[in-house]
Design a protein that fits this description.
With about 450 residues, the protein is an alpha/beta fold. The protein has helices at about 15-20, 30-35, 60-70, 80, 95-110, 125-130, 140-155, 170-175, 190-215, 235-245, 260-265, 270-275, 290-295, 340-350, 380-395, 440-450, and strands at about 10, 70-75, 115-120, 160-165, 220-225, 230, 300-305, 305-310, 320, 355-360, 400-405, 425-430, 435. Helix content is about 35%, strand content about 15%. Helix 7 runs parallel beside helix 9 (about 190-215), helix 8 packs antiparallel against helix 9 (about 190-215) and helix 14 (about 340-350) runs parallel beside helix 15. Bound molecules: beta-D-fucopyranose.
């Protein structure tokens, strides 16, 4: 069995992780500049200043995408490359050179018959906006709408697929709560809830701006993490345990799906979260906020790497089942859990009824260019095959899944882990910038050509 016709096969990246050229052509600093240059924040004090230097390899990189046979490419725009201090009004305004670079990238992609899927915000907030409070400032919804309008005015004649924000759970919780990511803040839960609320408003404002500025009806979605619990065995009780985890707020923090997705898809915060967080941590909702947040979305992006096996416990409460000793892991030491790619999409689709696109899935592996000049990465083939087979099951279960983007197109700056983790289908030798298409990418090409028919 192959995937539905028209299924979108792609690969994904994000601006700060691959572009480099951090101070080139008028780009302003993002929050990752001060953060990654602060000793100790990133593995071996790596920074994204050069990264994969994609900024200077556009033609070559799009050529390699063509070799892999990609139908689509998910990229993100660097806000501070387009608006160096983040602002359209009252600041430096549009940086023509930065916006022009994306313009050329889109043209290259279209020449190669690769459909661009553009994320507006993948964590690299302009530093100047952070200095105005960043996600704590209610004005950010307006800043984001202005930024979206600028990008869509320029690219919207050719780009049809838009993603507003990537993984709000991560950049709020880890960036504003746990100091594991830029800007490295340790705010309390009520402040994180406040930041998350502004972030959801910004998502809604961006949806409106995209639709208002696109010259043909666009397809608009978002890409939260798809935090996944899956049934350890497929009994009805265990499936309900998984649903309770995927569709519940079970711990007093932002590490869940529904605190973000219920407002976006249903227009209200989930009752269980409100109860658990308590009045002291409740979001301050102003008139019109929930209407703004609840904009129609055309697809629900899920970023899924792993999940937890759960069963229904004796007291009717879900319980996590520990992995057996030696359970398979990636180089990052993330557990390999293929059923996450069946149950995450399925349970989120059952709750929200919005078509699913897997906007990220993949693994870091211990890859190097071997003696024969090739990068042999059978682990990546095996991982991806097993996960995609599970995604097929989700589709067979009745889940409307429209596409799959492998993370990542190329090796890149993996945030706090720097260049230690290699997630790419393309190997990057950072000192020289040399690219080597990994063996897994050649295999992925056959998956795309057979529309997943060769996965078994
Ligand atoms: C996701 C991020 C992406 C990348 C992968 C490995 O959380 O969206 O930028 O770092 O993890």
């Amino acid at each position: 069995m192959s995937f539905p016709s028209g299924f979108v096969w792609g690969a994904a990246t994000s601006s700060y992780q691959i572009e480099g050229a951090a101070a080139t052509d008028g780009r302003g600093p993002s929050i990752f500049e001060p953060w990654s240059t602060h000793p100790g924040n990133v593995y071996l004090n790596h920074t994204g200043a050069k990264a994969a230097d994609h900024y200077h390899h556009v033609e070559e990189d799009v050529g390699l995408m063509g070799q892999i046979g990609l139908k689509a490419y998910r990229l993100s725009v660097s806000w501070s490359r387009v608006l160096p201090d983040g602002l359209l009004h009252g600041g430096r305004g549009v940086n023509a050179a930065g916006l022009g670079w994306y313009d050329r990238l889109i043209d290259e992609l279209l020449k190669a018959k690769i459909t661009p899927w553009v994320t507006l915000f993948h964590w690299d907030l302009p530093q100047a906006l952070q200095e105005r409070g960043g996600w704590m400032n209610r004005d950010i919804a307006g800043w984001m709408a202005d930024y979206a309008a600028v990008v869509v005015d320029r690219l919207g004649d050719r780009v049809k697929h838009w993603i507003t924000i990537n993984e709000p759970q991560v950049f709020i919780k880890f960036g504003y709560g746990d100091a594991m990511l830029a800007p490295g803040l340790k705010l309390s839960l009520d402040q994180q809830v406040h930041a998350a609320h502004q972030c959801l408003r910004a998502h809604g404002a961006a949806c409106q701006a995209i639709r208002a500025h696109a010259n043909a009806p666009p397809s608009v979605g978002w890409a939260p993490i798809g935090r996944t619990d899956y049934p350890v065995s497929e009994t009805p009780e265990n499936i309900e345990a998984a649903r309770a985890g995927v569709c519940g707020v079970l711990t007093p923090d932002l590490w869940n799906n529904t605190w973000f997705a219920d407002p976006v898809c249903k227009g209200s915060y989930p009752e269980d979260g409100l109860r658990l967080f308590g009045a002291a941590n409740a979001p301050k909702i102003e008139p019109g906020d929930m209407e703004l947040i609840r904009q129609p979305i055309d697809f629900y992006g899920v970023n899924i790497y792993d999940g937890r096996a759960v069963k229904m416990g004796s007291g009717g409460k879900p319980e996590v089942v520990a992995f057996e000793d030696g359970h398979a892991q990636t180089a990052f030491r993330w557990f390999i859990t293929p059923p996450a790619l069946r149950w995450g999409p399925r349970l989120l689709y059952e709750r929200y009824g919005v078509p699913i696109v897997v906007t990220e899935n993949g693994l870091s592996n211990v890859d190097w260019v071997m003696d024969d000049g090739k990068v042999h990465d059978p682990q990546r083939v095996d991982y991806t095959k097993r996960y995609l087979r599970e995604l097929k099951k989700a589709i067979a279960d009745g889940t409307d899944v429209r596409g799959y983007f492998h993370w990542s197109l190329m090796d890149n700056f993996e945030w706090a882990a720097g260049y230690r983790e290699r997630f790419g289908l393309i190997h990057v030798d950072y000192p020289s910038g040399k690219r080597t298409v990994k063996e897994s990418a050649k295999w992925y090409r056959t998956v795309i050509e057979s529309n997943g028919g060769n996965l078994g």
